[in-house]
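Box 3.1 A note on notation
Throughout this textbook, protein chains are presented in two layers. The first layer is the amino acid sequence; the second is a token string describing backbone geometry. Keep the layers aligned when reading.
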Amino acid sequence: LLFQKELNALKQYESSVSRVDNRLFELEGSTSSQTTNEKTSLVRMRERLSKRDHLILFIRRAPFLKRYYTRLDRTITGHVVDILKELGVPNPENVVHRYPHELSGGMQQRIVIAMALACHPTLLIADEPTSNLDVTVQAQILNLLKSLQKQFDLTYLFVTHHLLVVQYISNRIAVIYLGKIVELSMTETLFKKPLHPYSRASFSAIPDAISEFLYRFNCILDIPAALPVN
């Protein structure tokens, strides 16, 4: 009975799609050869879609499969809620059902971090994770990343143009210029004595009020080719 109902529904579906197909070809006014080729393609596509829809309808309506997928959905949702709790997201049971535009920038960033941690990685690549965030939220995200690093024994590959963020989060820094690593150094060493002209120019761009403890260099407008230090 289940398959008979599905089969009848599919026949009605195919009949309605065929009427729509014919009407579309009449409106387009295509040549006979074009119409034949296009209609053949549509028929094949309709067959594939019908088979897929038939399977989906069967899965949704079969009682034992409905119970299985309901339990699976609850399990996944519970796992997501647990991750959000670990990241300090308030009211995660509610947040898990929200759309991105309903969340603040800082909350969106926490959600992205949660997605990255869901598969339990050992290496996490963070590309400008603090961009477009105000200073207060940046500090919260950086502190969260440091806390998660200790908790999950993570290694970060942190990509950013913000030198003070790099100083706070990184142990070792690779300076990239024109697509090549031109200087590789421990964070403390690089901030005390940058060697490559691009590194020096980057440090000279930090505002004076923040970088009194740094060496000051005149900004270099014409930096030579991307050759590594030494």
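Strands lie at 123-127, 155-159, 172-177, 180-186. The radius of gyration is 29 Å.
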